[in-house]
Design brief:
33 strands, 37% helix, 5-stranded mixed β-sheet, globular, alpha+beta, 665 residues
Length: 665
């Protein structure tokens, strides 16, 4: 007998728990798959047996449902206003949503966005219900072929045979979608379209160019207003704008998506690395240096060659380029969507790869000699450059580049040591984030995905080690079921910046797969060979992306210990130039990062220029200061009065030391 199907609305109504604030429910027992179910989807009673939580409009899950539904309404409005436009995909994002469109003969303007937004409000006012329909693959392809939605048809044709097909309708508009959605358009109370940009179908510049419209939606107009103010503040803090104004970094077409750090930016960048090195010494890490280019046999062993080849750069010597037949075979093997063992073996012997990550090289180094359990845990850190081919449509300032450095380290340990190493990493991460002023950190525990490697018993052990480490140190965390890497679970660390935005920076990943692929061994206390666990971990993530996030967090005003220059000496008249030069030389000899402005500009202009470059301190030098051998010190708008050169050098020294955690009494 077929199980009776009930919708979430029916279940809630029977329990007297439905109201206009509920947009969906969250099932408790659907490990490794989507847990959010809308109120309209019928499910057998067995699905409700383990219980569920309601999802309210203002919750993060509720906002995701609202934004997903708003994206559908936007696409509906676009096609009503611009007939012949084809739609691709329209997901919710952390801060809103977008949809990609193929509009024949034109692009969308700012005026178009206003028209689309007005049409969206008309559709929302109809209070049209969202309706889900299961559909057979052939019927779905036929439906969207008749609608001339060629991108949808192409995508459907690539999906695995066991994919469940469903469509959602509101009014007369339909899209291929798995949901969930709000009950009806009335729930979409506050919407705003924010931008339009170019992109490519499936992120590949070899494919047709599309137009991407961005927007956001909230549960109330008040919440939307707060966000829009935040958006304006974010524009003012944009790291690309600040990087140019503060002379920190630049980009050039000769090296696309690869930053050039100018002298001021390089000082900050290197200071960040020096700080992490100082932390590593106190936390028992050893720094290593590994090659940039390897035989791709290394990446074949790690599994990256099979899964990541299109994101890698490959290196060729002049001799390699003489055999056109070989080059053709290499190209075919790299681009093959499902590489055969023969192709992988061929690539491994014939090609060299530029490293996109450090872990395979670290495994190779671990294997160079026999290791005892007494040497574990071994914590090895690497600041080597990495290269990944990011499509042109996704690169973004320092936040998404093609060459970067990670504060990358790997911990090789026994399974029994892993929990303590995770606890120690959390302590280290707290120290670093506190030093940079990130005080709000949200932790996510990402568990096994549906497609994974390794026995369930290994996953059980790894997930327990991560969870126990958090619980034993009283750390709150969110469970991100099914979002772990294919080789192991992980912790993600999301920080909140000065204007309330969340950024995922640090991570620690539990890997029992790669050590086995490299056949890594250590000798245990009984003289037997055992396979170590490998913990992948980073605090900044990439230094480039962290630089971008941090620059916006502080709005360009670096603390004294990190600032490219800590003080700028500003002369009132050229009669004090000799003293100013002497003071500058003395401060530099004491380790102060000092600059000097001896230009003919008036003092007001010098102060304005120095403030624009965000020097922590300004030191004005006039006739009185030259006679008394002092500096007239300012910080921001505060006049700190006169200070002797020696006292100022001592003051900077106390403020310039690397931050360290306070010792407990």
């Amino acid at each position: 007998m077929e199980a009776q199907l009930k919708t979430a609305r029916e279940v809630l109504e029977a329990r007297g728990k439905v109201d206009n604030d509920v947009v969906a429910v969250k099932l408790k027992s659907r490990r490794g798959s989507d847990a959010i179910v809308d109120l309209m989807t019928p499910l057998p009673e067995s699905e409700w047996a383990a219980g569920f939580d309601v999802v309210r409009k203002a919750s993060p899950e509720g906002l995701e449902v609202i934004r997903h539904s708003t994206a559908h309404v936007m696409a509906d409005a676009v096609q009503k206003l611009f007939p012949g436009t084809k739609v691709t995909f329209g997901p919710a994002t952390d801060n809103g949503f977008y949809y990609d469109f193929d509009r024949p003969g034109g692009t969308f303007s700012e005026d178009d966005l206003a028209k689309i937004e007005a049409k969206m409000r008309e559709i929302i006012a109809t209070k049209s219900p969202f309706k889900r329909e299961k559909i057979e693959r052939a019927d779905a392809i036929d439906l969207f072929s008749k609608l001339n939605e060629t991108y949808k048809v192409e995508w459907m044709s690539t999906l695995p045979p066991d994919t469940e097909f469903s469509v959602y309708r509101h009014g007369d508009w339909v899209d291929f979608c798995k949901g969930p959605h709000v009950p009806n358009t009335e729930f979409l109370a506050a919407v705003k379209l924010t931008a339009v940009s170019g992109t490519y179908w499936r992120g590949d510049e070899r494919n047709p160019q599309l137009q991407r419209i961005y927007g956001t939606a909230f549960h109330s107009e008040k919440a939307l207003e707060v966000y829009l103010k935040q958006l304006e503040e974010a524009k003012a803090r944009d790291h690309r704008k600040l990087g140019k104004e503060l002379e920190l970094f630049a980009f050039d077409g000769t090296a696309v998506a690869s930053p050039f750090f100018l002298p001021r930016g390089a000082k900050v960048y290197n200071r960040m690395i020096d700080y992490i090195r100082d932390v590593y010494v106190r936390h028992g890490y050893e720094e290593i240096i590994t090659p940039q280019i390897y035989s791709t046999e290394l990446f074949r062993t790690s599994g990256h060659l099979e899964a990541y080849a299109e994101g890698m750069y490959f290196a060729f010597a002049a001799d390699d380029l003489q055999d056109e037949k070989k080059l053709g075979e290499i190209r075919a093997a790299i681009l093959a969507p499902n590489k055969t063992e023969e192709q992988l073996a061929f690539l491994g012997k014939e090609v060299r790869g530029v490293k996109p990550m450090n872990c395979p090289g670290h495994c190779q180094l671990f294997s160079h000699r026999k290791r005892s359990y007494r040497e574990l845990p071994w914590r090895c850190a690497d600041f080597g450059r990495l290269h990944r081919y990011e499509r042109g449509g996704v690169v973004h300032g320092l936040a998404r580049v093609r060459t970067f450095c990670q504060d990358d380290a790997h911990i090789f340990c026994t399974p029994e040591q892993s929990e303590q190493e995770i606890i120690a990493f959390n302590t280290l991460l707290d120290e670093v984030y506190t030093a940079f002023g990130f005080t709000e950190v949200r932790i996510k525990l990402a568990t096994r995905p549906e497609r994974r490697v390794g026995a369930d018993s290994l996953w059980d052990f790894a997930e327990k080690a991560l969870e126990d480490a958090l619980r034993k140190t009283n750390r709150a965390f969110d469970l991100a079921e099914g979002e772990g890497a294919f080789y192991g679970p992980k912790l993600e660390f999301h920080v909140k910046d000065a204007i309330g935005r969340s950024w995922q920076l640090g991570t620690i990943q539990y890997d029992f797969n790669m050590p086995a692929r490299f056949d890594l061994k250590f000798i245990d206390n009984e003289g037997k060979e055992q396979t170590p666990v490998m913990l992948h971990r980073a605090i900044f993530g990439s230094l480039e992306r962290f630089f971008a996030v941090y620059l916006e967090h502080i709005n360009g005003s670096f603390p004294v210990w990190l600032a490219p220059e800590q003080v700028c000496l500003l002369t009132v008249t050229d009669k004090v130039d000799d003293y100013a030069k002497e003071a500058h030389a003395l401060l530099k000899s004491r380790g102060v990062r000092a600059n000097i402005d001896l230009s003919s500009d008036k003092l007001g202009a010098k102060i304005r220029n120095a403030r624009n470059l965000r020097y922590p301190y300004l030191a004005v030098i006039g006739q009185k200061e030259a006679e008394t051998r002092t500096l007239a010190l300012r910080r921001g708008n505060e006049d700190l009065g006169a200070i002797s050169l020696d006292d100022f050098a001592a003051k900077i020294a106390s403020e310039a030391a690397f931050p360290r955690p306070q010792q407990k009494q």
